């Protein structure tokens, strides 16, 4: 089978099975497995593809047709400037979360000790470790093996990962952080019922579910920050339509609403909440 026929065949299978971005996903699968750029599919369209490569591509297309997320099929997802390994025990990074990084870099500040709560595959902790190479960055989650793999893959030295249950364990750190970040599980029971079916079926439930009201991790971050965030330190959180309720939670822990700022994403939705701690 030549390259262009393989592309058309793959695209057709994906379209028949209801994959909306069938053309782009077919191009991505083929280019990644053949290790070529996407435009080469058209430039070298008459190139003959070895049979074993055809089988590998069609196997990936078949999996995607079953609505298995493409990131799990390929084993990675891009985030900010890097390529991160992903697996079925972690939430697939979304581009929306990059707004946390943009919010932090827009501050034009330096941070010496950073904590990423619910670090997952390590995207925030490792990205911040690269941006702030002189800082000590810590990530915490119930599963950190993949974050450690990504740390090794990206050759990052100033990030450390701790396997622990942030909600249940009494954590103790020497010294305080000047930046706490988190993209926590924040879907309520109602939010989860509206989640895309392929995410419900294949991504870990615990990566989405933030309790009946979706706010339990925010409450714990607020409580933790009272003792472990330095005065004039910052908290940067991913949020959704419940962002006002998150602000109320922090207000109940003595944070001033005037020291909070919500930032919208490219779709005009409230996506990031920045909070400055102005008390000891």
Could you describe the 3D structure shown?
- 40% of the residues lie in helices and 19% in strands.
- By secondary structure, the protein is α/β, with parallel strands linked by helices.
- The protein has two domains: 3-66; 79-276, Vaccinia Virus protein VP39 (Rossmann fold, 3-Layer(aba) Sandwich).
- The chain has a seven-stranded mixed β-sheet, with helices on both faces. A two-stranded antiparallel sheet has the order 1-2.
- It starts with a helix and ends with a strand.
Describe, in short, the structure shown.
The chain has helices at residues 3-16, 22-34, 40-43, 51-65, 70-74, 98-106, 123-131, 145-154, 189-193, 197-202, 216-228, 243-251; strands at residues 76-79, 82-85, 113-117, 136-141, 159-163, 177-182, 229-238, 260-264, 270-276. By secondary structure, the protein is α/β, with parallel strands linked by helices.
